[in-house]
Amino acid sequence: MDLDQIFRVYKIVGGVFDSFFSSEDRNVNYNKIWSFKGIESECIQNTFPNANTKLATEFGLNEYEQFIVTLTLLPYYYPDAFKGIRILQSADEYSFSLLGGVSRGDHKSCFPTGETILFLLGGRDPINRDFIHSFLSSGSSLFRHGLIRLLPGEEGTPRLSGQLCPSDELLALTKGTTFVPEYSSSFPARRITTQMEWEDLVLPFDTLESLEELRMWMSHGKKLLDHPDLKRRLKPGYRTLFYGPPGTGKTLTASLIGNEFDIPVYRVDLSLVVSKWVGETEKNLKQLFDMAENKRWALFFDEADSLFGKRTQTSSANDRYANQEVSYLLQRIEDFPGLIILASNLKNNMDAAFSRRFQSTIFFPMPDAELRYQLWRKAFPKDFKIDEKINFREIAKQYELAGGAITNIIRYCTLKAYSRDNNEIWLDDIEHAIIREYRKNGKIAG
Question: What range(s) does the AAA+ ATPase domain occupy (predicted)?
Fold first, then answer.
């Protein structure tokens, strides 16, 4: 959508309201309003003649839906766009209640409601109104893609009496920027990225081979879902479980997949999702999935055991509610059209009902001595001088450490070098850092 289209819709709306007044004395022309059947289809089609707009190609919106989206945007670009509603309603509040519209606080603008859209595009014709109503239902493309929101009206009023608002994503799209949701209780997730490459990832052959299926799906999954026979049997999306000890590469792998296939990966903060209050966890999950659905995002649930763990025997009301929340989550995961990655330290902690629905389960083991040697060898920047007493193969053989722990050791040793105003990596620093890592994990360095 471009600014020219927004301006054209602004002029069309202004023309509609101007037509409701007599040209001579500017009195209200009631007959014109009572006979109004909505903005003509030809006018709508001429405003959005190109089927290759981003709204059409990315979200599949037709010209009516694009027109509704633009009407929702109008007050953000032209605050006087719906002033005609206020003028008419000040003349006869009850006769023109079908025009809808709301004001907010001290803001002088009039904002469109669902009823405003119904009137402008459907007029008073019941057939036209019913046709437009289908675009404003809660399951329509506009709401399913999260492009617009319908705020609740006053208690006891019809649903469409609520104000229509553009989503932050729609506003970003209109400005030609990329939408990045803010981390909050309504979207408890942060985007994760990495500057590393696949070549930097050190994993055993079996794990890399298991990841190939996931990468094949990311490359060719759409072909399967477009196949006339396969699409009837296959659910959209891909669900996988990464399991293994901390620091073995699960988060890095998720980030690398996002980089390779140019999809945002969001790590979900389960501390904001799981609530002690009955029904709140389900509400938080709904907000999360509603935001992420149909956006080609990947959701990464780290330390997923707290939410995806085994269900309990229903010995109390709280147990029943907890199991209901797990069942709800299970359904949303199964219906999610994108990539979902669950990460857990132990596979056995996961509910079997989840495990059955994974397309793959991928084990990230503690690296053996040879893999640890590769991690040590790749770890230090080339412009640092390694003490000749340091034998990475011996260190790898002697100390069982995951990649994340080795990264912590690198951070410590390079900081120590900078603090000495040199670029030398000392054996004493490595040994001290290893002892620190072992103590953190309740181990004793051998």
Answer: 236-368
